[in-house]
Amino acid sequence: MTAAEAAEVNFNLTWRFAKTMPEIPHEYVVRSPDNEANFAALSETINKHGRWGTFRGNRYRYWYPGNDFKYWTIRRIINRARIDGAAITPKHSYPVQLLRSSTETKITTTINKYRRNKQLAAVWKRTARDVRHVIDGRRWILALRKGGTELIPLDHLSDAEIAERLPSRRSKAHRMMRLGHSVLCG
Q1: Cα–chain-centroid distance for residue 57?
Q2: How far is CA 67 from the centre of its chain?
Q3: How many domains does one find in the chain?
Q4: Residue 97 domain-assigned (yes or no)
Q5: CA pair distance 47, 16, nearest whole angstrom
Q6: pLDDT band, very low/low/confident/very high, at 88 (cuts 50, 70, 90)
Q7: What mean pLDDT comes out for the span 123-144?
Q8: Rounded distance, CA 122 to CA 101, Å?
Q9: What is the domain extent for residue 126?
Q10: Each residue of 142-164: pLDDT tens digit?
């Protein structure tokens, strides 16, 4: 099969968004008995027609079939990502533009959820054990609200309450700068 013929083939795989890496938006499919034939065909195409590239110090073979995606394999996983600045043909510009803005919205939402979860994990870690509890597998925290103390689910903290419980970056940088200054001057 030539590269042009391979680009025309619909490999009919079900792609999943990689939620664990929102900073590197891409989709993947894992090899399974259900998709064995299509997975093997696409994997063979990537190995046969792809070209070598480097990402974070690792070499991968990337295949660019001309459909606005690049494909690469990592063991039993095939990944695909949109190529930055991919050409949009005029006859498809409206639907593709909608798809892109929808995808961008999903990516932004995923990144925001990821950041919030990391912040909540930091709040949980910094909170004293006697004011945090796990009840039925859910994390709860004692919080001062409406003039009294309430036991609330950790994920119900507002952004302002999270910010109160985390050290500000500015104050940390300021402390480090002061420490550096005292070392140099003292």
Answers
A1: 20
A2: 23
A3: 2
A4: no
A5: 22
A6: very low
A7: 90
A8: 31
A9: 110-185
A10: 888 777 888 889 988 888 888 88
